[in-house]
Every structure is written in structure tokens, then in C-alpha cells.
Amino acid sequence: MFSKYFNRAPLVAFFLFIMVCLVVNHRATYGQEPTPEPTPSATGVITGNVVDAVSLAGIADATVSTDPGGYLTVTGADGSFVLEVPAGSYTLIASAAGYTPSPQPVTVEGGTATQVVFLLQPETAPGGASVFGFVTDPDENELEGVVATINGVNYSGETFTDEDGFFQFENVPAGDYTVTFVYEGYQTQTQDISIAEGQTEVDFDVIIMEPIVIAAIFGNVIDINGDPLESVKVKIRGIKTKFSEIIFTDADGFFEFADLEEDTYVIIANKRGYKRNKQKVTLGEGQQEELEIVLKKAK
Q1: Which of 88, 120, 152 is the C-terminal boundary of a domain?
Q2: Domain that holds residue 151
Q3: How many domains would you assign to the chain?
Q4: Three-state SS string across the chain, please?
Q5: Does the global pTM surpass 0.70?
Q6: What is the pLDDT of residues 118-129, one digit of tens each?
């Protein structure tokens, strides 16, 4: 009888071992939340265009890539592209054959589209000519900020004069070009140049910008004794332009009509107690005319 129970002892011991393990495991994990499974990071989209900085035409087959990550795509025929990347901050780099690569920072947020535009500068062949010079006004004052552009079949570019009035275009290939200088308040200057094969420089020396002369009619209204008349009503009317304006003379009898176009104008001066005076003036482009208007006392 006792031998029967002793034969079952190993089985009972194994059963008790299993129960103890279950209790220990339950105590160790009771009240703990399960560790969440990692979720993939959100993605966003970068869209945009890669264009020629000179012609503003789209560049086909340009490569757009990210650093870090190494994500890349190629532009379509119109220079547009779409690139899907994980959310984050990148340096986006656009490159194309014959152009200088251009980087720009970009931050991509998950579920959104980020728009960028690249303006790639065409590479110029080394060994071209240097085109340079100075820009001044007629009094030899250097003009800073003059817009200088050069346009030709083989090369186009734009630059600005510095504080010394100096401008320069580097590595300009052989060919025919038009160089234009634009500055507010001055007449636009244009010059044509030709650069031969092997030529290394074109020196403009000094470009003189002529100020724009604004057409105007001005003068004084006086009485027969030569004394100035204040508050005289002076009206002007253009025959062709139909321009019309009324002003009043100041304490010195002075009046001025500025920014006038080329036309024939009628000027009428009138003041209470005086006979009105009418004069006709023909102005050419940029011409200035000075008048002396004499008003006589009315009877």
C-alpha cells in the first residue's frame, strides 16, 4: 500500500513545481502594462521644381536627393519632382549636368507636403573672358547698386555694382553680347560687345549714367511793379494728354508743374482783383520751361 503512494510522489512533486512557477510569474507581471510595439515613423512629401536660374525653364532629369537618408528622385520633363521621405530635417540637394549643384535645408512633417524650388546656375566653361568696368554719374560719383546684365547666345548673367561702382562678369565665352545698365532715376545704358576666341578680358573703363530730366513748367507770378503775388490760382491743361491740374503760388509767387509729358500746355493764372493771364507752352521730352506771368489790376 505504501509503495503505491511512493510511486506517485515524483508526479505530485512535478505538479507542485508547475504551480509555484505560475504563482511567481503572476506576481512579477501583475499591474504592469504591456510594452507597446514600435510604430513606423510618419512620412511626408517634398514637391517642387528645378529650374534654370537664367532662362527660368524647367530642367529635366535633374537629381534631387536628401542628406541624411540618401532618398532621391529625378525631375520630369518640366523640372517638377515628388519625393516621399520620413518626417524629419534634411539637406535637399538638386544637381544636373551642366549646372552647379544647389543645397537647401528642409523640414518635413508627417502627412504634409513641403514645397521647394531650386534655381540652378549654369556652369561656365573656364578660360572665358572677364568683362568689367565702373559706373558713375556725369559728376564722376560712383553709383552703387546699378543692375548690370549681359545677354548672348552662349552666356547670360546679372550682377550689381559695388560701393566703388565696379561690376564684373567672369568666364564669359566667345560670342556677341548686349550689356545693359539700369539705375533708378537715370537713363538706361546699353552697349554691344564681341568676345573673340582666346580673348581674356573686356574693359568697359567707365560707364556714365545720365540722369533722367523730367519735363516741367515753373515760374513766378508778379504784378506790374514786379512784386510777387501769393495765392494766385494757376491751372494747366494739356492739349493732347488732357492732363489738368490746379495749384496756388506761394509767398514768393512761385509755382511748378512737374512730371509732364511731351505736349502743348495752356497755363491760366487768375486772382481776385486782377485780370487773368493765359499762356501757351510747348514742351519736348525732358524739356523744362520757366515762365514769368504778370497780372494787371482789374478796373
Answers
A1: 120
A2: 129-208
A3: 3
A4: CHHHHHHHHHHHHHHHHHHHHHHHHHHHHCCCCCCCCCCCCCEEEEEEEEEECCCCCECCCCEEEEECCCCEEECCCCCEEEEEEECEEEEEEEECCCECCEEEEEEECCCCEEEEEEEECECCCCCCEEEEEEEECCCCCECCCCEEEEEECCCEEEEECCCCCEEEEEEECCEEEEEEEECCCECCEEEEEEECCCCCEEEEEEEECCECCCEEEEEEEEECCCCECCCCEEEEEECCCCCEEEEECCCCCEEEEEEECCEEEEEEEECCCECCEEEEEEECCCCEEEEEEEECECC
A5: no
A6: 999 887 556 689
